[in-house]
Predict the 3D structure of the following.
Amino acid sequence: MYGGEVVKVHTGNVFSIRTAESGIQHVRMLGVESPLPSESSGYASECYAQEAKNLLASRILGKEIRLVREQAYNRDSRGLLVRYAYLGGSDVGAWMIRRGGAFADQDPEQPRSRYYTELQYDALKDKQGLWSYRCDYNNTTGNVVRTGNSAQTDEMCMAVGYFFPATGPKFCVNSFVVP
């Protein structure tokens, strides 16, 4: 368990901290997913990506946070530390999910999966953050947008969130469209 000052927020669930022991460390919050901005995904930004990033920055940027490792998790496939993040006694991931700035990772092995999913449904019910957002996707690629499995050209249901690229105010939860 260690921490440091948050020096940059990359997305609604990824940030960088400066630690006394290791210098700059890049961290992805365990159990938390968020819409991706274009610089993270390589494609057009997903709906609510910038808002999610701004919400997380407003909470932690420039502040000292504490990171807690869950034994089964260390680094992800991109080499990011995977940790729970705390500001004082507050779970930052839970805070983001409850405010609709992120959604729960659906990995059943993740110890807080059930708790985070309950917070997500509360945010959905209360139309918080991305759950209140209408995304009129601006397709600047010139590609025809159709329903399918390609994140580059098709509308598709994310694990939780809006259709990507969205053409209307529809969103989905675990591949089912929520009216």
